[in-house]
Amino acid sequence: MAAAGAAATDLEVARGKRAALFFAAVAIVLGLPLWWKTTETYRASLPYSQISGLNALQLRLMVPVTVVFTRESVPLDDQEKLPFTVVHEREIPLKYKMKIKCRFQKAYRRALDHEEEALSSGSVQEAEAMLDEPQEQAEGSLTVYVISEHSSLLPQDMMSYIGPKRTAVVRGIMHREAFNIIGRRIVQVAQAMSLTEDVLAAALADHLPEDKWSAEKRRPLKSSLGYEITFSLLNPDPKSHDVHWDIEGAVRRYVQPFLNALSAAGNFSVDSQILYYAMLGVNPRFDSASSSYYLDMHSLPHVINPVESRLGSSAASLYPVLNFLLYVPELAHSPLYIQDKDGAPVATNAFHSPRWGGIMVYNVDSKTYNASVLPVRVEVDMVRVMEVFLAQLRLLFGIAQPQVPPKCLLSGPTSEGLMTWELDRLLWARSVENLATATTTLTSLAQLLGKISNIVIKDDVASEVYKAVAAVQKSAEELASGHLASAFVASQEAVTSSELAFFDPSLLHLLYFPDDQKFAIYIPLFLPMAVPILLSLVKIFLETHKSWRKPEKTD
Amino acid sequence: MAAAMPLALLVLLLLGPGGWCLAEPPRDSLREELVITPLPSGDVAATFQFRTRWDSELQREGDTDHYFLRYAVLPREVVCTENLTPWKKLLPCSSKAGLSVLLKADRLFHTSYHSQAVHIRPVCRNARCTSISWELRQTLSVVFDAFITGQGKKDWSLFRMFSRTLTEPCPLASESRVYVDITTYNQDNETLEVHPPPTTTYQDVILGTRKTYAIYDLLDTAMINNSRNLNIQLKWKRPPENEAPPVPFLHAQRYVSGYGLQKGELSTLLYNTHPYRAFPVLLLDTVPWYLRLYVHTLTITSKGKENKPSYIHYQPAQDRLQPHLLEMLIQLPANSVTKVSIQFERALLKWTEYTPDPNHGFYVSPSVLSALVPSMVAAKPVDWEESPLFNSLFPVSDGSNYFVRLYTEPLLVNLPTPDFSMPYNVICLTCTVVAVCYGSFYNLLTRTFHIEEPRTGGLAKRLANLIRRARGVPPL
């Protein structure tokens, strides 16, 4: 009876064990995956390794240069070697994580008949006009014509000439090492026309460590898909001045051609407004010697803020806004001049603020006051104004004056106010800047997503990231093969896609769901369920352990 | 960061002939006016109107495409200085000169009524409308409670109302005038005195009644030069009788009725107090989608009889996309009250769609009434440019009617509001219930139960046995 009872108890104990084990098995096999699956956040896979690879990207900027030798430019036996290709490569020393190499691929060839004919003409301009016709050169490429040492195409003391398009002329030399000497000259000219350290340093100013030049380099606007340009006429004293300006005509005549030439770099929209009773924030000082008023250089930063609240255009635009203000000082404060550091009046009576715009003070001619009663009608001389504003516009877009090599003749300005190679140079710089921006954005996005595991990564965000990475790689390839136009377009795509991914609102959804709330919800369920299972598992484990060791002892 | 730096000047090549445009460039014109209406109760209503009109051709392609017409309402917004500042920026003279000097926020927002508007619309430049100008009209109406703020005195002046006086006209304005309504006090000069005495007066029919205004023209040099500033004052010689103002011919009222959180009814009461003339009214209603309207319950009754609207346009709502749009043309019989009512059901929102204070209720936009109200006095047709601004916002085409647009009051409707801590409570409760059930179930299944014979009895048994032994009965 007792034995039967013990056997029944053992059976019962074994059944209890099995039940506990089964519970544990169901909880682990079914419960855990179910819980994991239902509470997991959706995270599309991202190309993390490719993104980290972008940081070590080597940018190789290739400038294709076609070098054309005329008949008497180099010794005859050298001419026999033509055509061939020389590559001049050099690393640009910038403190930036990307290595940037600049590569001039010089394709040497002999001049064709019509080129010979053109280059034997009387003046450079004529030659250019004749050479210009046949074919349009690709963006970023250059053509250098080497003429004979004694050619009268250039003035005698000049060694080279840079044209308004993508052409340059260099004097040849009759020398044993003619190709070497000419090659050096060509690189000098080509550098002035395309890539220099300054241009790239200015483009990467935001990504480089601070140095003493950085403030100067940060003058240009950041690269963007579009820009909005606002011209404002400020008339603080409508009682004395009735100011008129033909802004529509001036924009049509001077600004629009410039912007058309720049249209490859982005979309532009231009608007204008007249603001009355808009005061500068600073009281000008009176200078009794010249009986005029002046603004100190150190007070100029305070001029902008009070005016800016009334400009009002930055709120309505997606793109960065460039403001150009024409300020007609009130009668009580005119004439008004801007003084530079040394106290001398600035010739243009204008100043600009980096990445913001420019202000010009337009003084009303004092003679007009004598003749008539107030208000005086003032017609603004738009040529004078637009000269200043266009020069400021060039500066703000980062089109600096070129560093011309010695003994080099620079062609006169074109009607657009922008030379074709200047545009190329801007595109080179903007492409590099875009690539740097896109890489930074992608890197920080990848870091953020890696750090916070709560964030949902939707498929469209992931696809934007993939697109951006592909565009960065494509742009780098195109730069390396010298296709500037497509490289620039790809770099813009890269920036757009990376920003879209970075600023996608879906990334914010689960970001603020903290861990303590999670535990508050889980603990009431998990604690009472898990504790018995765990305890019985521990008990079973201990018992089996004991029963395994017992037989050993008895043996 | 501004830096003065010598600029390398660009030499510009002039493209084409460099002659300047000799024609007079179109000049924007500004007209501004302030209408002051003393009310018999002692309150003073002041209405500013600024009209900027510019002749430059903005883009305008053909006729207005009605697919692009949009109508939007924000049923309620708390107005404050933030609404006034951007509005003032649109004025050419900002708040530096002219009538806009009086726009001082701390006075304008301490009033019993405040209404601010911006209208922008194309206006024809000539009778055949071959070319158009654009008009930006800004209006601001306030009602000052002069009786209470003035310690029981009903006298008022510009300085008392706005704490400023007029000093100079806006140099850009082609017209800058102050109108003071002296209609009721004009008959006998004894009741009221306006100081300084007006140079001219203006008479016209405004909203069906004949009005007389004293005019102060700021561009008139004599007006300001005499005393360096203009402070219009009004003194009552005899206190005015507190007679009720005449009831307007058209007015309206709107309310929501019903009980509970499931159904309700929107009712609009339209009053036509004209003694003998009926006129049609266009009623425009937009109702948010979360009030599901039952259009079959739409009833319009006037004088106890059903009133069939001559035109109904109804666009049903789509959840979270567009509101209901209901537009009706209703004929209001003379001297009657018309009730337009429609029933609705309150929808349940998603829990993230509730406002931060959902128990406050949800605002429903006012309905808009547009009507040509017959006038008692015949009015001259308005000349667009010559008549004062307050008369030309909605010009009448014929003299027997005048146009009125009324907005009823916005409504506050309560929606069924969930308990927002409910999800957490539900989770906690179910978890606890599951845990308790699970625990006993688990114990039942995994524990082994066997009957154990008690080896020794308790104290009671021993005690019982002691007694049994004493009695001679066998122990338990």
TrEMBL record, chain A:
It comes from Pan troglodytes (Chimpanzee). It is found in: Endoplasmic reticulum membrane. It holds the Pfam family PIG-S. The gene is PIGS. Keywords: Endoplasmic reticulum, Glycoprotein, GPI-anchor biosynthesis, Membrane, Transmembrane, Transmembrane helix. Belongs to the PIGS family. This is PIGS isoform 2. Its main location: endoplasmic reticulum. GO terms for biological process: attachment of GPI anchor to protein; GPI anchor biosynthetic process. Pathway: Glycolipid biosynthesis; glycosylphosphatidylinositol-anchor biosynthesis. It comes from the Eukaryota. GO terms for cellular component: GPI-anchor transamidase complex. It is a multi-pass membrane protein. The chain crosses the membrane at residues 19-36, 519-542. The keyword RNA-binding does not apply.
TrEMBL record, chain B:
The keyword Transmembrane applies. GO terms for biological process: attachment of GPI anchor to protein. InterPro entries: PIG-T (IPR007245). GO terms for cellular component: GPI-anchor transamidase complex. Residues 1-23 form the signal peptide. The chain crosses the membrane at residues 424-445. It comes from the Eukaryota. Keywords: Membrane, Signal, Transmembrane, Transmembrane helix. This is PIGT isoform 32. It comes from Pan troglodytes.
